[in-house]
Amino acid sequence: MEITSKLLNSANAIIEAKIDAKSIENKLNDIAKITAKKVKIDGFRPGNVPVKIVLDRYKDDLLKDAKQELFKKAIDDGLKDIDKKTDEILGEPIFSKFDEKDGNIDAQIEISFRPAVDVSGYEEVIPEYSTPRVTKKEIEEKINELLKMIAPLEKIEKDVLESGDFAKFDFEGFVDGEAFEGGKAENYILEIGSKQFIPGFEDGMIGLKVGEEKDIKVKFPADYQAPNLADKDAVFKVKLHEIQAKNIAEKLDEETLKKLVPNEEDITIEKFEERIKTQIKEDKFQKLLNEDLKPKFVDAIVEKINFDLPNVIVEQEIDLQFRNAWDSFSKEDMEKFRADKDALTNKREEYRSDAQKSVKLTFIIDELAKVRKIEVSDNEILQTVYFEAYRYGIDPKKHLEDYKNQGILPAVKMALIEEKLFNDIFKKDKKEEKGE
Questions:
Q1: CATH number of this structure's domain 152-246, picked from the four choices 3.40.50.10610, 3.90.550.10, 3.40.50.300, 3.10.50.40
Q2: E strand or H helix at 312
Q3: pLDDT tens, position by position, 98-144
Q4: pTM score of the predicted model
């Protein structure tokens, strides 16, 4: 077996392995001898199965094992030549060449390593910005929203239902003259104009009088969640019982405050308004961060910091982006890519630039997190996964187990580190609040 290796750059290497047929045969026989001592075959005592019998029955599988062991040795020997260790390898090695002829193998293996990333000077590209301010009007508007949210509904004497009113009504839906499951309710409460129902339904209710019945014709959206109803014409029979409105408090007082925060005895209106101010400020900051600061910083830092990218990881990212985009292709394109390998390769290459940027940013963020001592605990990851499960009505333990099996938890951790990092880089609140 002949092994040669060379570093392409600080993050990539190529190992060339020429494995002769004799080496493969010797390794196959060695594995067969070991297997013969362990395998159980009817008619032979344990440990006394002839090697020939083992080879006759399991040669194909044993040959694969022999080749794998030889490739592992080739990689180990190649790493020694370039003064690298196995634990420095990133991702799975890629065979960029594999020729097998007359029992001999001529292979070229690409290997990638974690790059050295120097982020010194990153502060120079942090965008300047002003800490978001909160006006009294914004605080009042937010409190009014909360007052509306907790306000009780009351029946009102009104002739005709209008947008903004709450309707108490019965309804039943029909498609092709047949009632469908989940399309019926009695004494349902709906805010007209809230767009909670499918397009056309709430508009069709406007103008109804109390006690009046009406057939409302609608069409389910093409992307409706129930496939049996998607893009179907439907008729809803409705009967209006009451018109209601919310009895909203004119201002925040001590009694209403207790309804908003029932479990806090020492809360005051002043403390609550300060809490609302903090919330609005945080919401403004997150909007500014996600829509302006973060994109600017990412573009600038990726341009400023340069290092060798691990090719194996870049190729994995290209594959991931291409797979994620597959469903967005037209049927014609899908058929074209299945039939034409060159077209498939060219389309895949379109994702290289974005993949390189994504991989580069991942390593930069990882290094910045170390520099700024950003850490994410296992408990934080657990809380994030559980919260996501509760939000979508999924069993939390099963959701966590699925994420473990699919290898998604590292991505969850990376997302949390990124969120913490950008908040840490851009947070000015503590420095500037004294001057407010």
A1: 3.10.50.40
A2: helix 311-326
A3: 999 998 999 999 999 999 999 999 999 999 999 899 999 999 999 99
A4: 0.73
